[in-house]
Amino acid sequence: MFFPARYPEGAWDPSTFSVRPQDVEFRTDDGVRLHGWWFQASDSRAPLIIWFHGNAGNITERAPMAAELARHGIAVFLFDWRGYGRSDGRPSESGLFRDAIAAYDFARTRTQTPIVVYGESLGGPYAAYIARHRPVSAVIIENSIPSLTAIGNALYRPLPLGWFALGAMTTTRWLNEAGRPVLVMHGKHDQVIPFALGMQLYDGLRVPKELLISETAGHCEFATCEPARYYETVVRFVRGHV
Q1: Of the chain's two ends, which shows fewer C-beta atoms within 10 Å, N or C?
Q2: Complete domains list, the chain, with CATH
Q3: What angle in degrees, to the nearest 10, is found between the helix axes of 123-133 and 171-178?
Q4: Which of 135, 134, 102 is nearest to 36 (CA)?
Q5: Pairing of strands 33-39, 56-57
Q6: d(CA 1, CA 234)
Q7: What gap in Å lies between CA 126 and CA 80, rounded to an integer?
Q8: pTM to 2 decimals?
Q9: Which has the closest alpha carbon to 42: 12, 71, 17?
Q10: What sign has the CA pseudo-torsion 73, 79, 84, 87?
């Protein structure tokens, strides 16, 4: 379930991005050192997106989007899960929950501006979990799942016993319990997490919600397939809920 890209895989030269990030490091409560990039907007009072990325790659793949959002006035904190990029350790379900909590708590030591959590693919449940257990202004979910049970059923095969047992990755329930506004984005050509699952997540929400559908995008390709709609929608949503 985890496909980490360790350093040096990826484009690690920060001078190539439209906004140059700051290298940051922090530790989880079990002592694992995590690495991230902090893309600061020009206004120090700008709201902050904490980006929980998916189960493949590392932060270098998301950095161009983070830089562009910072250029639009939204600060972004990108970090790598344990075992990804320049972060230490090995990924595990319980470990990633620790990472998510540590990332939020670290961000709060640096800024008191409003926080929006962004969950991409497998990062969706972790963003929802943080929204349930920490103060956030809003949530963005891109090409993610309502629950692990749902994706197992959609793929017509059981998931390995023991994977993601904690809370069964109940994204929809955590979002409803959090009670914060949610933006759901999904591409109709997603071959990793079927479009129907994104709609199942959206339909199950009982909170203020917004839906953005791409007719052309595959898995987590919204920003590259329809950049104008993507940035306009994300920036408007964040500014409207902070």
Answers
A1: N
A2: 20-240 (3.40.50.1820)
A3: 30
A4: 102
A5: unpaired
A6: 28
A7: 13
A8: 0.92
A9: 71
A10: positive
